[in-house]
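User: Fold both of these, please.

Assistant: Here is the first one.
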Amino acid sequence: MVIMGDGLHNFSHGLAIGAAFTESLSSGLSTSVAVFCHELPHELGDFAVLLKAGMTVRQAILYNALSALMAFLGMAVGILIGHYADHVSMWVFALTAGLFMYVALVDMMPEMLHSDAGEHGFSHCGVFLLQNAGILLGFTIMLLIAVFQHRIQLDLGY
């Protein structure tokens, strides 16, 4: 169930990235950075769940990689949608933003609030500071991309 859900989740992120790159380079880059910042802890969490379910490290990596490949399929579909259907990209962005909010509010917030850091030797204050540093880092990255998006250029050398 985790692998199937993660595959659909990754497909939707690929859709957003593909549609964003058809809009503009800066939109595609900012969406890619947002998806990366969102997916890194999510994939690590899925990896831990798969290990806890009894998979070997090799199996967990393989199944996690297979579900991650759905993002490439989603990206191809997103590029096609963004290229051939003009106003559908906004619906793709709305769907993906909803998924980001859902995962943040339903999955991450309860984990942050009910952390068992004290049982593992970490202070609650240190965990609080680390969590908020991560949130502020993500916010800062997105703010910098938004402020300097007109200066972002891709130099391919030709």
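And the second sequence with its predicted structure:
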Amino acid sequence: MIIFRLIGESFRFAFDALRQNKLRTMLSLLAITIGIFTIIAVFSAVDTFRGKLQASVDKLGSNTIYIQKWPWSFGDNYPWWKYMNRPQPSLRDFEALRERIENAQGVTFEISASDRVIKYRSSSVEGISVWAASHDFNKTWNFELQDGRYFTENESKNGSPVCILGSDIADGLFNGDAAVGKQVQILGRRLTVIGVFNKEGEDMLGTSLDKNVNIPITFAKGVLDIQNERYGPQITVRGNDNVSLEEVESELRGLMRSIHRIKPGKEEDFALNKTTIISNQLDSMFKMVNIAGWVIGGFSILVGGFSIANIMFVSVKERTNIIGIQKSLGAKNYFILLQFIFESISLCILGGLLGLLLVFLLALAIGAATDFHIILGLNNIALGIGISIIIGTISGFWPAYSASRLDPVEAIRS
């Protein structure tokens, strides 16, 4: 009960100090408020960015590997011309790989042609992307259809003039009417719409299917040079759910070396890219941002800590005679010590709460002005309060200790 009474009295003393010396206390709390605001604002923004980017990365598939010419991450001092001279993944590589691989639930050969125009009667949509893929595209990519169906095996094999539209394209061409069964014109050919992708919305990596048109790769062979580097040919492999990504990668590396007839000890002429490469790069980037937040906010908190310590020394000086009376009535040293430490913590928590309030208001303002919504999570709220408690304890200890060591006679005489 004494502890609770001490805490209650400390809060009362803190608020009395704030009420009686508003300007002095607010100026001292300002540094704590700015420090907490800076650190928590940076951490909240980083956590929000990380969550959105990770969701975008997860859409690519955590158990998916992309066989491409260029790696997503370059090593130190690696000559770029070695990558330039690599061959593009080919249909021959894809067919050989599909026949031999054992630990994959889907293997696709894909190309992408950007900035195209699709037409339906007098309506048209510009700036779309045309994706051509082999039949297992529905096994290697995560998507849902809001209308229609996926390609049949015969349609994929025979290169039938059919396509699946993104939801934005369907809305732009048909204005809410049913898209399935209608014929659209793209790449100089007429194709029948057999399905419409579910609306996904734009993500941080731009992997949305909303403005994509998907066609069979066999059909694309008749209208595009699918081996041209400008179309970014790649082979996508999704491993079985019961097999680790490392096992799939190891099998792929061995098969691709065999298909390309690369001798043991020779460098590979292909890249195996996976989402963990992006995740690791994001982690490194966000670590640097977090460190910057700690450094910038740390200076403000350091200044705030000295300000709180100064307030507490002034508070001890102003209440020296009260301390003497309390000690003469039997108050122990620890009672005086805890009283001033709790008061210091109360002041710091007040500054921390003001900083958290500013972060919350900033998040609301950014969310209202843009589509980016910063989330102030419970972990960051707890971190802000925790930092405030630690700074309050450190800043208040020496003034509290000096108060607890006062001689009661000398204190009353003052």
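The first strand starts at residue 64 and ends at 68.
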